[in-house]
Write a structure and sequence with these properties.
Elements lengths: L5 H5 L7 H15 L8 H17 L2 H17 L13 H13 L12 E7 L1 H6 L1 E12 L15 E2 L8 E6 L2 E6 L8 E2 L12 E12 L8 E4 L15 E7 L6 E3 L2 E9 H6 L1 E6 L4 E6 L8 E4 L15 E8 L6 H17 L5 H18 L2
Parallel strand pairs: 1-9, 11-15
Antiparallel strand pairs: 2-7, 3-6, 4-5, 8-9, 10-11, 12-13, 14-15
């Protein structure tokens, strides 16, 4: 099955900036998150697809390759998204070709690959920051051979094919071409007596425990870079980095909108008509919310400073409480009769107790007279 276009997956234009990508990814992550859709394989796949698209499009180097060569370019460059598969970057895609044609060396051992780890945290952890311990499988430099791949006390042998040059010459008519040595792959040496611990690879797979400091205010899509915690480089080259990508789990009470929090507050018709006081939870305490008389559905009350702090600094956002007036259900006969009597008293009073309803009825009546009557 062919992969969908990453821009199509996120629903953004090809010139979308980082903020647009983050908003689109956050919307899809909230919609298809496995916690909100337990057991739904379709939603799980869509969540992974959005994660993959966001990972590529927010990396300038990968995005440049994808824009020019599509999915095939990422695969050929060893840059497909996922833990441990960042590859060596754009130069890896074409470096071998240029080296073969022009006879150039590619700067020695390659830097280690970057790794990615998706960390799910709660809204509270995202709002106030936390320190989490994670265990990641990764390749580490072999302690037995110190990354050289040879048995203790043994030195690599000079490559018999290129005689240590790392390249071989080929004569084609009047032209002499240099190509990467197929035997040693530019190294100039070969391992004749490999290390038993790593079997000549110079690296072994282990699990490592790391502490990750999550700053207050992070949101879904944010990434934390741990320098040097990626895969080790070849033969002493620098290691790659570890990118911890944040995914904030859906909350049972609040929804996040930037640095603001939003919650729905259902109230009964008596409280809506006469007013009252409700106790509203926030992320760090509780507050009394005053409901004034004649409150209507959709009314939003803003509680200043009860939202989330920005990860870049500055004041906290607000908590927006949207009122929903709830119609009573399961009424007894007596309660229904009392409600009818109450309705009749409103009609007889001559006052406009329901201004929105009266306005709507007037508009509906005029529309029927002007457009629907023959």
């Amino acid at each position: 099955m062919s992969k969908r276009d990453y821009y199509e997956v996120l629903g953004v234009a090809k010139d979308a900036g980082d903020d647009d990508l983050k908003k689109a990814y956050r919307r899809l992550a909230m919609k298809f998150h496995p916690d909100r859709n337990p057991g739904d394989r379709t939603c799980e796949e869509k969540f992974k697809e959005a994660n993959e698209a966001y990972e590529v499009l927010t990396d300038a180097q990968k995005r440049a390759v994808y824009d020019k060569y599509g999915h095939e370019g990422l695969q050929r460059g060893g840059m497909g998204p996922g833990a441990g598969d960042f590859g060596g970057g754009f130069s890896d895609l074409f470096g071998d070709i240029f080296a073969d044609i022009f006879g150039g060396q590619r700067g020695g051992p390659r830097r280690g690959s970057d790794l990615r780890y998706v960390m799910e945290i709660s809204l509270e952890q995202a709002a106030f920051g936390t320190t989490e311990r994670i265990r990641i499988p990764k390749l580490e430099t072999c302690g037995e051979c110190e990354g050289h791949g040879t048995a203790a006390g043994k030195a690599p042998a000079t490559c018999p094919t290129c005689r240590g040059a790392g390249q071989v010459r080929m004569q084609q008519g009047f032209f002499t071409l240099q190509q990467t040595c197929p035997h040693c792959r530019r190294r100039g040496v070969v391992i004749t007596d490999p290390c038993k611990a790593c079997r000549g690879a110079g690296r072994v797979r282990k699990e490592k425990t790391l502490e990750v400091k999550i700053p207050a205010g992070v949101d879904t899509g944010d990434r934390i870079r741990l320098t040097g915690e990626g895969e080790p480089g070849e033969r002493g080259a620098p290691p790659g980095d570890l990118y911890v990508q944040i995914a904030v789990k859906p909350h049972s009470f609040f929804e996040r909108d930037g640095n603001d929090l939003v919650c729905s507050v259902p109230i009964g018709i008596v409280t809506a008509a006469l007013g009252g006081e409700l106790e509203i939870p926030t992320l760090d305490d509780k507050v009394a919310l005053q409901i004034p008389e004649a409150t209507q559905t959709g009314k939003v009350f803003r509680l200043r400073g009860k939202g989330v702090a920005s990860v870049r600094g500055g004041p906290r956002g607000d908590l927006l409480c949207q009122v929903i007036v709830e119609t009573p259900v399961h009424l007894s006969k007596k309660q229904k009769e009392l409600l009818r009597q109450f309705g009749e008293s409103l009609d007889k009073s001559g006052e406009k107790h329901n201004p929105e309803t009266a306005s709507w009825l007037d508009k509906a009546r005029k529309f029927i007279e002007q457009h629907l009557k023959a």
